[in-house]
Amino acid sequence: MTVKSSPSTELVAQRIERLFATLTPELQTAARWLLSHQQEAAVLSMRRCAVMAGVSAPTMTRLAKALELTGFADIQRQLSTATLALAKQQLAAVRQALPVDSYAANARLVQANARNQSGRNTNSAWLHTLSQAQVANAVSGSTSLTPVQWQALGKRLLLASHVVCLGLRASFSVAQQLHYAAALLRPNVHLMHANGGSVDVLCGLGSRDAMVVVSQAPYTQQTLDTATQAKRQGLFVVAVTDSTISPFAGVADQVVVFEAQTSSFFPSMLGSLSAVETLVAAMALQAKPKDLEHLAAREHYLRDQRAYVLTGKDSATFLQLSPHVQGILKTP
What we know:
Layout: H1 10-19, H2 25-36, H3 38-43, H4 46-53, H5 57-66, H6 72-96, H7 103-120, H8 125-142, H9 147-159, E1 163-166, H10 172-185, E2 189-191, E3 210-215, H11 221-232, E4 236-241, E5 254-257, H12 270-285, H13 289-304, H14 312-315, H15 323-330
Parallel strand pairs: 1-2, 1-3, 3-4, 4-5
Helix pairs in contact: 2-4, 2-5, 4-5, 6-8, 8-12, 9-12, 10-12, 13-15
């Protein structure tokens, strides 16, 4: 059987083409699914991919081994890199025509491009292009650093006396997500708001503290000014931004770069969201028992306050807390 390769799956496809005849029927089923769902395979969990392919999760691991790779993560790394590169190529022509300083002009061009595409192909062409960019952006956020670098960064933030999350305008929702998730692990995580007293949060902070700032073009001046002030005070600054030459890269101790490509009029936020979710996951990997007890205490408190709609399983489950966690709950 000859499997045609494409730019987005060339390396994986070549391995499958060379080794397909040696695969068992079950591995061939997994391989066929992999070739026709490369974008999904790049970002979904191995278990989810297995369910969609109609095979068991261990089958996906065996497929990677049969393709002479160390594991399914190797397949995903290849697909992630290729998916990002392909999306950039496909979006290059579209983005070249979109003036980034004018959302209104971008919106008009998006409409014109959609009409042109529908004449050549189908009315869903614009959606296909957009979804490819979204997948690539999500992949870029989580692969900006190596696993070792992510874990080191997560540990650095856990060791900080205070962590300040900053993102304004479009990036505020991403900074808020970072704050909400990270604060479940540590009580010393703070969110800055766009008001006159926002800089007050930095009062008394210094080299033992950290700031995670989120921003992408067009960059917000107030965000840059605040990040610069934090750097002057000695805070460890992490910049989650869309370019290595972003103005935030110059004030950061650690830069996490994501893609914000889109065929729409407004820059995509998926890359930055993916980056901060990966950062929180890295923090959780490095969390100490006291951090996990804080997480359990917060979860217990939220359940006790009926913050969530409880399902049957949730209502029948009650967290068993240690005396230390109970003490945290009683602390004002």
